[in-house]
UniProtKB/TrEMBL annotation:
Family: Belongs to the FAD-dependent oxidoreductase 2 family. FRD/SDH subfamily.
Cofactor(s) this protein requires: FAD
Topological type in the membrane: Peripheral membrane protein
Subcellular location: Cell membrane
Recorded GO CC terms: plasma membrane
One GO BP: anaerobic respiration
Entry protein name: succinate dehydrogenase
Pfam families, alphabetized: FAD_binding_2, Succ_DH_flav_C
EC number of the protein: 1.3.5.1
InterPro entries per UniProt: FAD-dep_OxRdtase_2_FAD-bd, FAD/NAD-bd_sf, Fum_R/Succ_DH_flav-like_C_sf, Fum_Rdtase/Succ_DH_flav-like_C, SdhA/FrdA/AprA, Succ_DH/Fum_Rdt_flav_su, Succ_DH/fumarate_Rdtase_cat_sf
Recorded superkingdom: Bacteria
Record's catalysed reaction(s): a quinone + succinate = fumarate + a quinol
Amino acid sequence: MTIADSPTQSAKLDSKVPGGPMEDRWTNYKFDLKLVNPANRRKFDVIIVGTGLAGGSAAATLAEMGYNVKAFCIHDSPRRAHSIAAQGGINAAKNYKGDGDSVHRLFYDTVKGGDYRSRESNVHRLAEVSVDIIDQCVAQGVPFAREYGGLLDNRSFGGAQVSRTFYARGQTGQQLLLGAYGAMNRQIHAGKIEMHTRQEMVDLVVVNGVARGIITRNLKTGEYERHSAHTVLMCTGGYGNAFYLSTNAKNSNVTAAWRAHKRGAYFANPCYTQIHPTCIPRSGDYQSKLTLMSESLRNDGRVWVPLTKGDTRKATEIPEAERDYYLERKYPSFGNLVPRDVASRNAKTVCDEGRGVGPTGEAVYLDFADAIKRDGRSTIEARYGNLFEMYERITGDNPYEMPMRIYPAVHYTMGGLWVDYNLESTIPGLFVLGEANFSDHGANRLGASALMQGLADGYFVIPATIASHLAGRKLEEVTKDHPAFKEAEASARKRADDLMAIKGTRSVESMHRELGNLVWNYCGMERTAEGLKEGKRKIADLRSQFWTDVRVIGDQNTINQDLEKAGRVADFMEFAEVMMHDALVRDESCGGHFRAEHQTEEGEAKRDDEHFSHVTAWEFNGPDAVPTEHREQLTFEEVKLTTRSYK
Ligand SMILES: Cc1cc2nc3c(=O)[nH]c(=O)nc-3n(C[C@H](O)[C@H](O)[C@H](O)COP(=O)(O)OP(=O)(O)OC[C@H]3O[C@@H](n4cnc5c(N)ncnc54)[C@H](O)[C@@H]3O)c2cc1C
């Protein structure tokens, strides 16, 4: 049977996964890849959209190699990318603790953690290069925490029984980003990176089927610009803000990915959203942001709720015998360090039972009393001081004396643009890196593995695989006067004109909030077929209301944050319908995608490997049309498909 004949494998989705022994695949593949010789690299222009950890690391490395890089971000500096918010750490299979870690174990944990919905070959490569990332970052001067003996320290994250997470207090993302930013700056100074800040990619330019440029809107002047290149790398982060309330930076959005999708890049697994178990609970209807309390806290914090419903005593007044440390009770092997999807669902269950704490009843305790008694306050302060301080500033409670109150919140998106082993999308010449691609995490990302993936993509994978396009295809000369640039610019301008012309009655913010509520209620921690159908209908109505009744204030030809936001919310509206559709079509539970109809007697996610062991990638057919479904069948050669158990 050929690929095209196969009932589950779309011929459009050739993953290009190499054969041979798993541990040799990446090495052999790199050897077989074409090369661009050093003298020829300066003939190639590379556009990189997004300069968080994925884009920043790619820009620095490709420029260092000799390519001409043009980098873009919506922020006023690469240093302000959402990556800077990452707190807890980055995984690597260094086995510094000598506790049995290995490349194979990291690979295995990640495939299992993702509930067997990721590509084995990609995950193995990720585990392999994880060790190089740490060396690279140390060489850049990233101040990872060290032990007394001088070795880099490690802690544990969910879904692992070893300590493999490297960290810089609770500011790992910031320190890693400073490393990438320093490396970028060297190349900006050398003239190899042209850095364009406060520029928003508003369209992708595809010439004869190949990505050859972008249209940007200058966010300071409102002017539209055309930029051409031999290839485009999209590193624009995740779409968690479709839910309005999330732990993501307020500026995180789906716009660049969505507009590339409309030009032909397939969107994979949009229903896989990660709900992080340890966030500060929402406190009211007018909140605009949620705050993460790093997963690292679960190394020492114990999660519990009162044994009985409606217990309103202060946490410190509830005796041990009347507490339910439900994660330790249900999952004795992994305890408080079960993966995020499992911890989140359990928090929801105990709150739904009426055992939640705090004013809304939507919270559980994360308690450090035992750890402080065991290790002393100063040790706990050295590990988590800045997180405790942040918690106290937001809630007014002192976590050294009173347990933190936490509740799950939208945090990370495993779905994204579909990419093959080269990180190339279904549009030749368009590569997608970091959280923006559907990546290596399957249906649930394990903690500390997003930074690993973003930096693997940028420092190690794309520098090799980009040659598959640049040396492997004949690329014609394309100038910015090409009709494809004119058409893309005109359509971007028209979209903004249309938004300005509506002059309705509702603010962009209020419509985003309403959208977020719908997505959370119908496609949040628990989904049902009925709810998803209703949610889809309601989102379609809201979208048509948006295009008739939104009011965008200000002027197009200048700085206008309302217009910027309106464009992004309009994209979230279209995207959210596909997300719901994907969640409806995936008629199983897996990882972060929990369909209430499919659960075990104990309330765990019940996969359907026979029918859903595939990646679903959607092809855009217009905002009002049902997208076309494509499938990439997943095969498992190394890891045996079993029911995930953390007991
Ligand atoms: C609070 C928090 C803590 C976290 N902690 C951890 C952790 O400890 N460990 C871990 O592994 N992961 C963690 N994560 C996840 C991790 O931080 C992200 O997945 C990762 O940083 C994403 O990096 P990125 O480079 O893909 O995207 P981002 O850092 O989001 O960068 C996106 C870039 O794209 C640009 N951009 C966006 N749209 C456009 C556009 N249209 N035009 C031009 N530019 C655009 C932005 O300006 C930015 O430069 C955390 C996430 C959160 C929310």
